[in-house]
Design a protein that fits this description.
By secondary structure, the protein is an all-alpha fold. It has one domain. The protein is built from 5 helices and no strands. Helix 1 packs across helix 2 and helix 3 packs antiparallel against helix 4. The longest helix is centred in the middle third of the chain and has 28 residues. The radius of gyration is 16 Å and the shape is globular. It starts with a helix and ends in a 5-residue tail after the last helix.
């Protein structure tokens, strides 16, 4: 079950990285960036492309290597702070886009799954 969760994360991050890298104007506008300068486009590619490919790699490596405990710790280390910041920012900057709310909903589900997998397993293979 944990390996499947890690693979789902790997695929989601890889797809998101590809989508953001190939369609930066469309994806950035859907999350509220109105216009990106050349520096903004570079930064967007680094964070939404490169870093997310790195996340995909770590999730895939955790699933393939059987290092599921690391994968869950990594998942919790990124999702818990992201979710806390997401909640505060949505409340502070309401109203926000549908894309922002959909992303937040996905983060809630992935965080809940990570917590359940962490709590539900005494030893993770």
């Amino acid at each position: 079950m944990t390996a499947a969760y890690l693979w789902i994360n790997a695929v989601l991050y890889a797809l998101l990285a590809i989508w953001c890298t190939l369609m930066p104007a469309r994806t950035s506008q859907s999350i509220g960036f109105l216009e990106l300068s050349s520096s903004g486009q570079s930064e967007y590619a680094v964070i939404y492309g490169g870093m997310q490919f790195g996340f995909a790699f770590l999730f895939a490596w955790s699933a393939m290597s059987g290092n599921h405990r690391f994968g869950l710790v990594f998942s919790l280390a990124i999702y818990v702070p992201i979710l806390l910041f997401r909640i505060v920012s949505v409340v502070r900057y309401w109203p926000v886009s549908t894309t922002t709310l959909a992303t937040g909903t996905l983060e809630i589900v992935l965080t809940a799954c990570a917590i359940l997998l962490w709590l539900g397993s005494r030893t993770i293979d």
